[in-house]
Amino acid sequence: MKIKSQRDFFSGLLLIFVGAAFAIGATNYNFGAAVRPGPGYFPFGLGIILAILGVIVFVTSFVRHCTDGDPIGSIPWRPLLCVVGAIVFFGVFLPILGFVITFPLMIVLTAFASTEFTWKDALLNALVLTVASYAIFIFGLQLNIPVWPV
Amino acid sequence: MDLVNNLYIGFQTSLSFYNLWYAFIGCALGTLIGVLPGLGPIATIAMLLPSMYTLEPTSALIMLAGIYYGAQYGGSTTAILINVPGEASSIVTALDGYQMARKGRAGTALAVSALGSFFAGTVGTLIVAAFAPPLTALAFKFGAPEYFALMFLGLVGAVVLASGSLVKALAMVVLGLLLGQINTDVISAVPRFSFGIPELMDGINFVVIAMGVFSFGEIIANLGKPAEHREVFVKAVTGLWPSKEDFKKATPAALRGTALGCILGVLPGAGPLLASFTSYTVEKKISKHPEEFGKGAIEGVAAPEAANNAGAQTSFIPMLTLGVPTSAVMALMVGAMTIMGIQPGPTVMTSNPGLFWGLITSMWIGNVMLVILNLPLIGIWIKLLTVPYRFLFPAIMAFCAIGVYTLSNSSFDVYCAAVFAVAGLVFNKLGFEPAPLVLGFVLGPLMEENLRRALLMGRGDWSVFITSPISGTMIVMSFVLIIVTALPSIKKKRQEVFVEE
């Protein structure tokens, strides 16, 4: 057997896994019966359906005609790590360091995700966005965001 | 007459200075994000939701609606000028619009699209105003089985329209429904899938999912592409006004597009995308010169543009009358209403007539504003396209990060958004369309509740969904829709339409 669509192959596996996980997790809750369905009824059914769909996708990955093997392509590690890192950084440090320190640092970290990164652009971005966000969200909309380091 | 009276109430609300201002902001913002590729109405509305608490509910909804149909206008501008559909529903517009632009008739195409959209929007608003009350009356007859069937139909509609594989789109809906199961069970009060984390017992906020998948995930995927794939350039646009000949060709096409759009927009899940696609096909079928299509036929711009705008208006009907969202954007609107303490559903019209009719009339006002904005400001919108992506994406990130944090002033939501950012990238890489997921997620708890109640009513007999005529019809329609879509001939057509992807 040869995998004709790499995307479908992994999609199928992922769906089977997630569907099964939900279905198994749902067995922790009272299933009930069709007359009086319990909290486990709906998620169990859905988990099974998802897993079945996964099997269909998995099988088609061997059948479907794709001349190039339908590859997933390279994983964009740099943007992935930078963007996700920036979000997590923001979550961790905002309550501690406050908006004025965390926010510009997050912007610089985000900007680093692009291959076109330059310090000049990143710092300019950080400055403009910090001032603008402060004006809109903290001064204008009065949102409850920690501003200064604790 | 009732209609006139109701519209009067509506205009009283929507013509207040305050609401006019928010309608204007919404339209301007909508056009802006429609013009910017990669920043859709879903991400924008998700981004703005947290700041909605401070606004008056009517103004907030008027603004959100403005963003929604403003995006439809703006999306066609880029579709015509640079062959980049800003919105899914303007994919069809790009086919002939861009060809017109290449022949130096960009101004004509833009004007026809704006005028056609305006006309369609006006008709659409009238249809919403005229048919919302009778449909609301019908909505009171809806019991648990009917609601379940309607949501089922809506989800099927969303699946049929998603680009790419049908099975994968189905899987996304089911995954969305499952994510909606992470909560405390409404009936038995048992916390589910929360792993003992208190924040998860209230369920994941849908804004977190929408932002994570659409904004963050898209940014990562976009940055992963080589820069030249994102590069856009603009030629000069000359000669705005269409000739008499153009009008003669475009007018009937726009009329047909409007009619189709009004009808298809009401169908759950169908919305503007299906409307624009169908009307293009119809025009091509009945045209005396079908060979001109795809080479710059003006009918190929007028009809789908009118259709998608009419559909954008009438897709408010199920949301307003039943409280059932039929698309991801509508789901966000329902979310916004809930945030502001309004229970969406048939009672809104009687309990909040100012809001209900104000929103409807503001749609028309919004359409007037959009024509005013779009015709003379086309040049400025184009300038904005030249903002390099390296300045754009940190700004999107910044506003999203603040938005997520302020949802409940906790870092937990921020971490969840990070998880969904990764999920968004995975979906993108594996060829999953994320929109059905959001719709499934929002409908999940509602669907479960109605399913379980319907089964209780029917004493465990699943035939309860078939025996009620309303729900039976909708279930049958759903299955017909699935089967028809899965048929080889339609499947081929569907792939042709989405070949732009």
Written account of the structure:
The complex is a heterodimer of chains A (150) and B (501). Chain A has 150 residues and is an all-alpha fold. Chain A has helices spanning 6-26, 41-63, 77-97, 99-111, 119-140. Chain A contains 5 helices and no strands. With 501 residues, chain B is mostly helical. Chain B has one domain. The longest helix of chain B has 34 residues, at 106-139. In chain B, 62% of the residues are buried. Classes of the chains: A mainly alpha (150), B mainly alpha (501). The interface between A and B is large, with 72 and 64 residues.
Structural class designation of chain B: mainly alpha
Largest sheet of chain A: none
SS summary, helix count of chain A:
5
Greatest interface (CB-CB under 8 A), with counts per chain: A-B, 72 and 64 residues
Summary keywords:
heterodimer; A: 150 residues; mainly alpha; 5 helices; B: 501 residues; 23 helices; globular
What is the gist of this entry?
Chain A is 67% helix and 0% strand. Chain A has 150 residues and is an all-alpha fold.
Fold topology:
The complex is a heterodimer of chains A (150) and B (501).
Chain A (H helix, E strand, L loop, with lengths): L5 H21 L14 H23 L13 H21 L1 H13 L7 H22 L10
Helix pairs in contact in A: 1-2, 3-4, 4-5
Chain B lengths: L1 H13 L2 H19 L5 H8 L8 H26 L8 H12 L3 H34 L4 H18 L4 H14 L18 H4 L4 H19 L19 H23 L4 H16 L12 H16 L1 H7 L5 H12 L8 H4 L1 H33 L3 H20 L2 H20 L4 H23 L6 H4 L1 H18 L1 H10 L4
Helix pairs in contact in B: 1-17, 2-4, 2-17, 3-10, 3-15, 4-5, 4-6, 4-13, 4-15, 4-17, 5-6, 5-13, 6-11, 6-13, 6-14, 6-17, 7-8, 7-20, 7-22, 8-20, 10-18, 10-19, 11-12, 11-13, 12-13, 18-19
